[in-house]
Amino acid sequence: MTALVAFALTLTACGGPSNNANSGLKGADNAIGQADINPQDAAKVKDGGEFRWPVDQLPDNWNYNQLDGTNADGRRMIDTLMPNLFKQKPDSTIEVNKDFLDEAKLASSDPQVLEYKINSKAKWSDGTALSWQDFEAMWKSLNGTDKAYEVAGTTGYEDIEKVEKGATDQDVKVTFKKKFAEWEGGLFSPLYPKAMSSSAEEFNKGWADAPKITAGPFKIGTIDRTAKLVTVVRDTNWWGDKPKLEKFTFRQVDRPALADALANGQIDFFDIGSSVDNFTRAKSMQGVTIRQAITPDYSHITFNGADSSILKDAKLRVALMRGIDTKVITKALLGQMLKGDAQVTGNHFFLLGSAGYKDNSAVAAFDKEAAKKQLDELGWKLEGETRKKDGKELVVRYVIPTPNPVSDQIAKLVQSQLKEIGAKVDIQAVPSTDFFKQFVNVGNFDMTGFRWLASATPISDSKGIYTLDPASTNQNYGRIGSDEVNKLLEQANGELDNAKRLELANEADKKIWELGAQLPLYQLPGAVAVKSNVANFGAVAYANRPYDYIHMGFTE
């Protein structure tokens, strides 16, 4: 599943200059590659310390695979505690995570059979060893056959025929009934214990307040919803390299307060995102460095195509998209931060600089006159400043989180642009802690905006976003899709030939543009403001699943 982020998320660091105070950031069209993390050998990273990590909200559910669990901040906390079977590297390649697996291989391609060998040292916090039964239970809960399980997505799991024990309990054999190409990465990651899938009630609600069983370098210290913080501390039962840090504190910090919190030593970094104010502040901070790497993170607008929404007509959605100038929005948000021109994103699957990227946005490209003409043809006639059809005004409810200056700025730009074509935008600002659970996840909006954090497996990651399943929302919050898109995504996810898979995904992308499902705005520059004495962390590029929580820390 793809994680969600609402639009732009010790002692004060001693020494260290601020970062090139007059320089701008690179654009997102640079090639994917190197992270910018102040790499340091373990001997140069001090033992101990607390790293303070700002978040927008605490997890709505510690089960990442449950519909409410897909928030990106929650995933970052979960990854300190739970097994990720693979690790994404900065250049978007994937490797086996040896802390949990000795080996993972494609044993057969027809039928497709995977074989996993679990690290014999890997234990759950209740003392039981990780086993094939955890894999089996996870597959059964996520394959979509039991609708009582409120899953965020079934991708990959629905293609599995059976999960079996191999030579030992730590040998897992997974046989597919349909081929699944991007199995390295998201499948069975994060892994959960079989007890969590023992019933739909346990899966849906059992981990809503706290994780019950863990298996990672850290364990829960405290969950304090009143103080809006979570701490994780070293787990002495961890079998891998000892973490450098003693403790992480994940604390909810409102977006407008991030720069002050870093300057005052209350947090150790913040994601600059698309906030020029935070970029400007960070440049002037002593003991803070701005790090940057191309990151799979982009902002977009989601449209609602459900029958309850005024935007249920695809042609109306596309007409409105044609009235939104994404170049103006991108320049307004990023222009003052970048060395070169800000570039819009024209693809729902592939980001600028990646091998599969093609701009497929022509059908919904900005053209104010074309937008007006299309609205006229659809029967939305201009009466005064606002269009009407059958006596009903064209009023679109745009839901945004607050406090969030970036969301606010984007929404007001969209409001101004759509007013010029006769559409009225009613901006509804809701508390950021309620934004996903009470609005986005349940389709309580006409338009809304947030960031998608993609991964090194973008096609399978996106299947639950763009597939329309009558029985499950998955992450298709706008309930927009077609049999054609479903079929193309099925084909792409089952295509083992890389070039053909990219081609199929681009065909699906063209159809998604025609449906007016989502309007990508811009890819984030991937800039992070971080204390200068922080080692092995910063702008990690694609190496965010999981972050390297074990080796990050502070220099002496």
Q: Which helices and strands occur, and which strands form pairs?
A:
Layout: E1 3-6, E2 50-55, H1 72-81, E3 86-88, E4 94-96, E5 101-109, E6 112-118, H2 132-142, E7 160-165, E8 171-176, H3 200-206, E9 218-224, E10 229-234, E11 247-252, H4 258-263, E12 269-271, H5 276-283, E13 288-292, E14 297-303, H6 314-322, H7 326-334, H8 368-377, E15 381-383, E16 386-389, E17 392-393, E18 395-402, H9 405-419, E19 424-431, H10 432-440, E20 447-453, H11 458-466, H12 483-493, H13 498-515, E21 518-523, E22 527-531, E23 534-535, E24 553-554
Parallel strand pairs: 2-11, 18-19, 18-20
Antiparallel strand pairs: 1-20, 3-4, 5-6, 6-8, 7-8, 9-10, 10-11, 12-22, 13-22, 14-20, 14-21, 15-16, 16-17, 23-24
Helix pairs in contact: 6-8, 11-12, 12-13
Pfam family, one: SBP_bac_5
Domain Solute-binding protein family: 107-458
Organism: Lentzea miocenica
Key features of this structure:
single chain, alpha+beta, 13 helices, four-stranded mixed sheet, six-stranded mixed sheet, 556 residues, SBP_5
